[in-house]
Design a protein that fits this description.
alpha+beta, Ribosomal Protein S8, Chain: A, domain 1, 2 domains, ten-stranded antiparallel beta sheet, elongated
Length: about 290
C-alpha cells in the first residue's frame, strides 16, 4: 500500500467576469479509463473438472457454506488440506481473483483474496512466510482478518502537549474519533470524517500520524479506480483512501466502524455468487 499524496484542492480568490485570465487553459482531472467488472472464470472442459473430485468437493462445500450463511448461520471455513497440487491449481483457476485483497501482519499472518464469486474468499494462514492453513471462507469479509484488526488496537492516547506547530483541525477530529470509537457497538452504522473537505496543515498531519498510527491490516479494493483501507491503532478506526485510475486521491476519510463497507460483499453479492457457483457445478455435472 503506497503512501498517499496531498489532495489537490484548487483555491480561487475571486469569481466573476475578469477574474480569470483569458488564455489560461482549463485543467480537467483525467477521467477514469478502466473499471473492474465481473468476468466469468476461464473454466476447463467439464470432463477435466469432473476428473478432479477433490476440487469439485471443495466447490460443493463452498456452495453449501454460502447457502447456510445466507440462511443466517456462521459456517466453518472449507479446509483444503487434503487437496493435491492438481486439485488446488484447478480450484484456483475456477475461483479466479475478484476485486478485494487483504492481509494482516503479525503472528500468525493472514492473506485473503476474494474470488470472482463475491463473498467467497481464499484465506491463507502463514508463519514465517510458509502456508500453515489454506481455506475457502464465505461471508462479507474474512473473519480472521477482521479479528486481527480488533486485536491490533489500543485506546487513543491523550493529546500531546504542546501540540505540533501549526496544528488546526486535528485535535477536534481526534476528540470526535475518541468519542465515536469508545461508544461503537457492532451493528451500528459507520461514522465517517471526510478529511478531503477539511483544511489540514502539516501539523495536523503530524498529529494524526502520532495519535492514530498505522495498524497491521491492509485491504485493497479494485473497482472504479482503487480504494485502500488500513486500520489505525485506535479501536474501530480505519483510514479509507479512494484513488481514480490515474492513482490520484479523490477522497480521503477516517471511518469508525467494524470493517468499511467498501471492503465487504453485500448480501446481494452473496446471493448472486450462490447462483453463479451453482451454475458452474451444474455445468460440470452435465452428461
Amino acid at each position: 500500500m503506497s503512501q498517499t499524496r496531498p489532495f489537490p484542492i484548487p483555491v480561487v480568490a475571486s469569481l466573476g467576469p475578469g477574474s480569470q485570465a483569458d488564455d489560461e487553459p482549463i485543467d480537467f482531472m483525467p477521467m477514469p479509463r478502466a473499471m473492474s467488472t465481473y468476468r466469468p472464470p476461464a473454466l476447463p472442459e467439464a470432463e477435466t473438472l469432473a476428473g478432479h473430485r477433490g476440487a469439485i468437493g471443495a466447490l460443493q462445500a463452498a456452495l453449501a457454506a454460502l447457502r447456510r450463511h445466507l440462511d443466517g448461520a456462521v459456517p466453518e471455513p472449507v479446509d483444503l488440506a487434503g487437496l493435491g497440487d492438481a486439485d488446488r491449481a484447478l480450484l484456483s483457476q475456477v475461483l479466479g481473483e475478484g476485486e478485494v485483497a487483504a492481509r494482516a501482519d503479525g503472528t500468525p499472518q493472514w492473506q485473503a483474496q476474494e474470488s470472482v464469486f463475491a463473498g467467497v474468499w481464499r484465506v491463507l494462514q502463514l508463519a514465517d512466510g510458509q502456508v500453515q492453513r489454506d481455506t475457502i471462507e464465505v461471508g462479507a469479509f474474512p473473519r480472521a482478518i477482521a479479528e486481527a484488526a480488533r486485536a491490533d488496537s489500543a485506546a487513543l492516547p491523550p493529546l500531546p502537549q504542546p501540540l505540533p506547530e501549526g496544528t488546526m483541525n486535528a485535535p477536534a477530529v481526534l476528540e470526535e474519533l475518541r468519542d465515536r470509537s469508545h461508544g461503537f457497538r457492532p451493528g451500528q452504522p459507520p461514522h465517517v470524517v471526510n478529511l478531503s473537505l477539511l483544511p489540514l496543515t502539516p501539523g495536523d498531519s503530524e498529529l494524526f500520524e502520532r495519535q492514530l498510527g498505522r495498524g497491521g491490516v491492509a485491504v485493497l479494493s479494485r473497482g472504479y479506480g482503487n480504494c485502500r483501507v488500513v486500520n489505525t491503532r485506535a479501536p474501530h478506526v480505519w483510514r479509507v483512501t479512494y484513488f481514480n485510475s490515474q492513482d490520484m486521491i479523490i477522497l480521503d476519510t477516517l471511518e469508525v466502524g467494524a470493517v468499511p463497507e467498501v471492503a465487504c460483499a453485500a448480501r446481494e453479492d452473496l446471493e448472486d455468487s450462490a447462483e453463479r457457483l451453482a451454475e458452474v457445478l451444474q455445468w460440470v455435472a452435465q452428461p
